[in-house]
Amino acid sequence: MGVLCPQQLPLKLHFIPYPAAGHMIPLCDIATLFASSGHHVTIITTPSNAKVLHNSIPYHHHLTFHTVQFPSQEFGLPDGVENLSALNDLPNTVRFHEAAMLLRGPIEHFMEHHPPDCIVADFLFPWVEDLANKLRIPRLAFNGFSLFAVCAMESIKAQPDSFIVRGLPHHVTLNATPPKGLTKFMEPLLETELKSYGLIVNNFAELDGEEYIEHYEKTTGHKAWHLGPASLICRTAQEQAERGQKSVLSVHECLSWLNSKRVNSVLYICFGSLCHFSDKQLYEMACGIEASGHEFIWVVPEKKGKEDESVEEKDKWLPKGFEEKCKGMILRGWAPQVLILDHPAVGAFLTHCGWNSTVEAVSAGVPMITWPVHDEQFYNEKLITEVRGIGVEVGAEEWSIIGYQERKKLVGRDCIEKAVRKLMDGGDEAKEIRQRAQEFGKKAGRAIQEGGSSHQNLTALVDDLKRLRDSKPLD
Is 226 a catalytic residue? Predict the structure, then answer.
């Protein structure tokens, strides 16, 4: 047998996802891309998160898990809480983040004894920069945002209180200004991110646009690698259903219901795992949906109420007789979102514009009704509606620092009904938006195939990392 030359030897990569569904799921999907290309991948996470990931990402013999204990009890968190999605209040969220920072010790210990060729880590772990420098290996950063949103964040630094984002390739006017607390939290993380070897983006170049890739690299001097959409990696229907958590509804039940519906006749409604609305807002939403007259699947986050509280007590916000009168399905908990969006019966997606949900909708060719709530979602809204023209806005104008923060402004039922009808009633504007959305869906599929933009980026990134490894002087 011939000896492999250095450039042919597979890479050894360690992935460190932040333990929150919106960060963990896409980064671990991207890890499987490297594993399926023959590289040795280790995902470093906590025991319960490893168990969830085992069920939801395709098996590869090149992919292994290393687990470190999450210090829940040290911070007064409920026993067994290892993922941010399990919490719904600010004090516990702060404690959770502080606990997550304590993962540094055991992770550094493992890394020092098992050094990889490259570390791929969430930007919420800024200490990885010091570790990579200490081990003299490259670090790739991941933040779970679109590159468009990162460009907007960088541009708005100069004028944080302005609705207008200046200096971008497009004229962009936001519906709200970012909360000062969010900006204060994000800026040092983004600065540390720029010290990494490059940024991995869960998107495809055609959606962010070459103009934004050029803008980012020109204004920051940093490299971005578009490797997505991560949700399109090959997986079974069961793996899709359990992507992130186990679905509250069986795949068979969900698809059977959708199979009985006409093409583009169902509205899908979901606001992610970290966004919780008040009962008043949920009531307005229900009234607006009912008035629109369209069939729907509505995912309502499971309320963390008292254990002895009945479903009726938890759902007291529902208008009387809503479920009997309306032609829809309410799911309380986690839903098989990728499977739902891929179904031809789904005609629009009412979304909070979290990046995972957004790129999953784009990949499925489904137009969006945008209702941003927190984090970078108000930037994503503008990419979808103003820049790419594949969605309509519901009119949300209150930017929260966190998804379950109490909000002062209600989005009224009339605004909700109007936005739903605009996409679902089938006028000329709706047809144009739907056509553009379907075109982007086809581009997303081509991007990850051999010769596509994301596939080429993966190949180029692997070649770069191999060159770095093989040029490293021997100690």
Answer: no
CA pair distance 29, 11, nearest whole angstrom = 17
Name the catalytic one among 14, 23, 40, 294: 23
User: Tokens standing for 230?
Assistant: 């991560």
Give the 3-state secondary structure of residue 326: coil
Give DSSP secondary structure letters for 66-114.
EE----TGGGTPPTT--SGGG--SHHHHHHHHHHHHTTHHHHHHHHHHS
Give the Cα-Cα-Cα angle 139, 143, 148 (nearest 5 degrees).
115
Catalytic residue among 29, 122, 208, 375: 122
Q: Decide if 122 is catalytic.
A: yes
d(CA 23, CA 124): 10
Q: In this predicted model, what pLDDT tens digit does every residue of 263-281 receive, in sequence order? A: 999 999 999 878 888 899 9
User: Of 201, 225, 197, which is closest to residue 138 (Cα–Cα)?
Assistant: 197
Token code pair at residue 259: 């199979």
Distance separating alpha carbons of residues 449 and 228, to the nearest angstrom: 11
* pLDDT above 80 for 59: no
CA-to-CA distance for 153 and 147, rounded, in angstroms?
A: 10
Question: Is the CB of residue 202 less than 8 Å from the CB of residue 30?
Answer: yes
Do residues 120 and 31 touch, judged by C-beta distance below 8 A? yes
Residues 124-174 pLDDT 10s: 999 999 999 999 999 999 999 999 999 999 998 877 778 889 999 999 999
The average pLDDT across 68-95 equals 88
How far is residue 445's CA from residue 448's CA, in Å, rounded to a whole number?
6
Separation CA 115–CA 84 (nearest Å): 28
The predicted pLDDT at position 3 comes to 43
Whether the model pTM is above 0.85? yes
CA–CA gap between residue 7 and residue 1 (Å, rounded): 17
How many other C-beta atoms lie within 10 A of the C-beta of residue 426?
Answer: 12
- 124 against 76, higher pLDDT: 124
Token match 């000062």: residue?
A: 180
Q: Has residue 308 got a pLDDT over 50?
A: no
The distance between the two most distant Cα atoms of the chain, rounded to a whole number of Å, is 74
Asked whether the beta carbons of 28 and 15 are under 8 A apart, the reply is yes
Q: What is the DSSP letter of 386?
A: I
Which value, in Å, is the radius of gyration of the alpha carbons in the chain? 22
